[in-house]
Amino acid sequence: MSTGLAIVLFVVGVVLLVKGADWLVEHAALLAEGLGVPHMVVGLTVVAFGTSAPELAAGLGSSLRTTAQDPLVNQLALGAVVGSNIANIGLILGVGALLFPIVTPPAVRQREVPLMLLVMAIGWATMLFGAIERWEGAALLAGVFLYSWNAYAVSRRGKKIAMIETLDEEKTKEELAKAHTPGWWVRHALMVIVGIVGLTGGAELLVRSSVSIAKALGVSEVVIGLTMVALGTSLPELATAISAARKKHTELLLGNVIGSNVFNTLCVLGATSLVMPITVPASTVRIDAAIMMAVSGLAWVMVLTRKRISRVEGAVLLMAYVGYVSYVVLSSRSGAAV
Questions:
Q1: What domain count does the chain have?
Q2: What CATH number should be reported for the domain holding residue 286?
Q3: Cβ–Cβ < 8 Å for 320, 107
Q4: Model confidence pTM above 0.70
């Protein structure tokens, strides 16, 4: 595959991933709401999972293409998860706070952010011995169900947690009535399937083109995963962040970031390593995952000390992300092991 064609396919893959995730989230949320599932739970699970679906699709695609001749292809998934988690905190929270300061409710400061940090620390721990084995992947996947069940149990007890609202507050009664016309569930179910197909096709194009570009540039798959794939698959979160910040729905933005990082770590790493164990470069454990934890910890300190993320703090987070990406790119060019 020529480099030019690979770049075109990469762009097409990102577009399919983003649109597929968009359709999946929108129509799965409407379907669940129509079936009587609580909005709070749908937001935490469906929306967070939907915006993490590009990383999951890319990760599974890379694992399925891992062979004896090319055993390191699924490092793309590892790079995408770590890079996307860093992008969620540095890029997405940073951009969102620059547009409008993000106020954080007590439950987010005291429960949701610490829980996210705990999950990410567990993901980091699975990398320490140089590989994420299948049994570790199964344990991470089990964590997805525990996390989802806990969210449902908390909502049933009536606790107020900053979650993602599944329906736009500006949606009119007429639009809601139209959404529940006879056969409404068939339409939404079909669109969920279309979203999944878009994600699958986009992931395949993204994986194939990324590996081709990586080889043409002489850099490793993990570097491409940490930069191009991580940024490309973070576009759903970024679009949500910009929209939420402009409408001053800062809890929506924060909930999306927290839920996405949890699902990236538990579901994407879990499912990918369950299909094929992931070889973890020492530098990923020592540098990239450590930066992921440091940036997330910095965001937690910000919300603890001032109960919000201001525009200045958003700029700090954004500069941290730009600095990290610059480091990855420059290190790969200089031949350093990244």
A1: 1
A2: 1.20.1420.30
A3: no
A4: yes
